[in-house]
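ok trying this again, last paste got cut off
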Amino acid sequence: MIAETETVGLVQQFVERTGQLYSLPAVAAEVLRLTSEPQIDPRALRQCIESDPALAARLLRVVNSSLFGPTRPVTDLSQALTLLGIRPLKMLVLGFSLPKELFTGLEAEVLARYWRQTLVKAVAAREISERLWQVPGDEAFLAALVQDIGVLALIQQLGPAYERLLSRVQTSGGSLIDCELDTLGFDHLVLSARLLSHWGLPAGLCAAISVPPVQSRIEGLSGKERTLPSILHLADLIARMIDQPYGSALNELLTAGGQYCGLNYDRLQPIVADLQYKVAELAEVLSLQLADGLSYVDLLIAAQQRLANESVDAMAALATNQPDGELIALAAELQQRLSVASQRGGSQANSRSAVQRKVVTRVSSGCMSSQQPTIVHEPRGEKRLSSDQVLRAPLAAAIQRSRQSRTPLTLALFEIDNFSDLLVQGGPVAMTELAYALRYALADWTASTSEARLISDSRLAMVWEGCSRSEAIQRTRDCIATASDWARERFDLSVDVTLSIGVATLEAAPKNYPAQELIDAAERCLSAARLSGGNTIKSIAF
């Protein structure tokens, strides 16, 4: 068993520290506790909510809104709680009681844009659930309402650099998730899911929220696991389409929606037509001021006209393929900010947690648990060397031996696909165990005497002397074919474990050939394999 104090990676440190900084308000935490009891006490639940008059008023207003459409006005909180049911109540309380620290200091324009997109997504998710899947839309509505709270945490922790990334997506179009993966190495959905898990939300809901909006990934899920991520994906694309009517969101929406539930343009129109009024009503419930803009129907028409213009699509595709120095520079700055945010302020986080515990004890006994909140401590360990530092010296020696023996040499880099999702499913300790187990499994699968080197939380490397490109490809194909079944037998994960592999072969080593060039070549191949969707191999030979 790997100790929890071992290094589990920069991303996980950032996620755990964020969980410490942002705790739920006391009333919301107590509602979650009361609704998790085997026997729910309606009186205690009502008293707890009544201790926060603003929250009680919001619940009554949303129950009376067109979102729920009661046959007659609901004026009594007990009646509202009965009408809502336990699961919608838990999620509404969470959505209406997010930690105020997430919003502190944000510029009005940034906050308004966040809420506009979030409310559009939440209402769209409810409409899609009920109209296209014919299932109650409460869970989808509330899951969409909290799915992007990771964006707020990233704004708070990474500052102007991340805000520039948001602005770039808004002005240039495209997916925020893709930009985050390119610059940070993980996306805000993972952060959202980890925060919700830290606050005690069900594992199944957290897992659904963490699924990236990628059609191939969602279609790979089992039947029941697929529904909520599919709805959230379509709702996210509707929000993108309204925010970026001249982007590619409508095309992606109709393509994915056609596969998920037979969505077409005619079925989409009435959904979009009803959105604007319901979004405005929900903003009023939450006391939010959203900037007025074009009607959503006009934006849909603009998106449809843009989709019909194939020349614009072709130009956009060409532009996308051009190297972007600004994005590269922004990625470097964000990585630096991420490193600082992950490692700083341990004492500050502990101090804030202590203050929050003191505040919690002052809440009336009618809505307060006697249990102390669980504190998740940041993992600590020795700093890991970079992959280049780990590989450069042994690879240089291997190149020298290969030159002397006049035999080929291959460097293979193995990356665990979807590692952020696996972290959410299994946790850092299980993922550390998986990486170490994979280290020894790779040697068995490739029938190699050389060991696999663990060079990051999700990446391993092997150096094969006397191994040609064709032989290396066969070895790595065996790994691709074996990895998923091997992991399924040993680890309790709902996400398949697959590998992306980059292979660089030096057929005949020239004199003084630098090891770094072979490392760079293998990393380029690995990046190409990941961009191809993972579970594949890319190779090159010199």
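PB: full thing came through this time. Residues 52 and 239 are 31 Å apart (CA to CA).
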